[in-house]
Design a protein that fits this description.
The chain has about 350 residues and is of the alpha/beta class. The protein is built from 16 helices and twelve strands. Strands 1-5-4-2-3 form a five-stranded parallel sheet. Strands 7-8-6-11-12 form a five-stranded parallel sheet. Helix 6 crosses helix 9 (about 190-205), helix 11 (about 245-255) crosses helix 15 (about 295-315) and helix 13 (about 265-270) packs antiparallel against helix 14. It starts with a strand and ends with a helix. About 35% of the residues are buried.
Length: about 350
Amino acid sequence: MAVELKTLADVLALDFDDIIDVRSPAEWAEDHVPGAISLPVLDDAERARVGTIYKQVSPFTARKIGAALVAKNAAAHLEGPLAEKPGGWRPLVYCWRGGQRSGSFASILSQIGWRVEVVQGGYKAWRRLVVDALYTDAFPFRLVVLDGNTGSAKTEVLNLLPARGGQVIDLEGLANHRGSLFGSMGGQPSQKAFEGRLALALARLDPARPVVVEAESAKVGECRLPPKLWRAMVEAPRVAIEAPRRKRAEYLLRAYADLVADPARLDGVVASLALAHPREVIAEWRAMVAAGRFVDLAEGLMARHYDPRYGKHRARMAVPFTEVAVEGLDDPGAIADRIAGLVAGL
């Protein structure tokens, strides 16, 4: 049987024990349905080989060779990751467009006795829903932007709001990046994978209630925000956390503990600012890294790099702006309480 995905709500409502992506590893790496597992029936080289035979020899020969490879790889999956699946296991299978790869694998699984279904239209059906939600349809949400200079605990406060009844989009979490030059958290998802995560996150929200999103640029690391979301953020009212610079510097040491623990990496990031600041300033900052003066470094970066840029950006905006002044950042929960109250009144 084929499962038709008409809306992202249909994706959220899927009730299967496993969602299986049988495309090649390269296709999987670029993007896949969130939560799906990879069990390719053709690896990258096999897929290329079958495609070449299809074009240069004949479709019949390609299908015959492809079927043999699918059978071989399916056997490996059955003897490996699927070996312990019980008789009541219910998988959902998809390939690129719901054709031969998913159909062949599903046929083998059904012959064993499992109640398997395939996605009508395959991965392309999923991708079409994502593109429609982010690029084609009207943006349905009323946003409130959580603002504040670098080190204001915005991300931590944002993630405390759902426990206080708020709705949020954690763009940095979806992009696996803290949103600044110093914000790398390891590998980021591809642009398509980021968009898929974002589309599902939005599908879980209620358009009748405000949604809080952290102030970001048009890119979070290498992940680009869809234009309609970015435009809504630019036009949204802002609630800004205002904390003393020294307190923000101390907070950054806690929030970026991984970077502080790797002085060589930190020094490399500081050195990459050479085009934006005089040579003597870069040398001073690098000396702070070498001496372990991380709080002083954070203060210097905020005073000369980040705070001026935030100020210029805000000066160009003509949106409602509410400031939440705090003396310190040791109690993010208390700040979240205040933010939640303000958002409810907007």
